[in-house]
Amino acid sequence: MDSVKNANPFSKQESHGPRSLLVYKVLTMASWLLVLITTVYFTADAPEPGKYNRSIWKQNKAYPTAFSLNPFITDIYWLVLFIAQLGYFWHLFSTDASWSTSAANLGSHHILFNLVQFGFVVLFVHGHFAWAELLVVINFFNLTILYFRHPQTNRFVHIPIVSMPLAWTFVALFWNGAISFNATGQVAYIFANIFVWSFLGWGLAFLFAFKDYTMGFAMTALSLSLAVHQIGTKTIALQWIFAFVVFGLLAFFSLAVAVPAYFGKELSFRGENRIIQDEETAPLLSED
Fold this sequence. Notes:
It contains twelve helices and no strands. The protein is mostly helical.
């Protein structure tokens, strides 16, 4: 069993040898740069000329749906995500064995996320939305497994590697999904007015079940992106109202969970409330 566990790159290891850590460092950095460069390039420019080839936000504009996002707010979200991921590299390259081992245990999931996200961006800008949706689904399951497989994670790792990517993937299911199904008519907008509340449900599930305010704030930011972009909607113009309500509720409940945690009174997302002595190294989640 130990040999099988050691051969599984997604299994949780008690320690990593120098070669294993080197592999994770190289692949993690390479995959991160791949996604960063691809995202920045296709945000600013379109791929080679083609009927369906457009930059990311020109695709967003060319296929308006009830889940189209605001480019500026979403770009800020990704900028924060990329910068925050430097904190993960800090842990992965740390000389502290406990930090580097913990970060390496998340490495395979993070590398997979980067590679799949890269594929999604390439397919999206080339207009292959159905295949892009399949990749979003793969990343959704990958990150969901990561979330529950590693319940004890330092906040500087949890936020950029787990909660922000997972929140984005959940929203992308609707953003790209609406485009792939050509959901632009009145009936589609009626269904969208219902499904937009899933943003609230998804965020509150993590806030109430695990007291994970990082997921709450991530969903708050993306809900704001949706709300702002939907203001100009002319077809059954309720989506922006509902999205702003979702944004407001998520912001309120996220603060309600985060403020006590900030003062060290409740940072255990699974288990009994307790005082945290070392906020920097305290896990965001604690196992049952």
